Amino acid sequence: MATNINNIQGNLRAINNRVLVTGMHFGEQTTTTGIVISNDDGKTRGIYPRWGKVYSKGTINNDVYAVGNWILVEHGRWTRGINLEANNTEFEVRMVETESILAYSETAPDSLNMGAEYRDGEHATVDPSSFINPQY
Question: What CATH code is assigned to 13-116?
Answer without folding.
Answer: 2.30.33
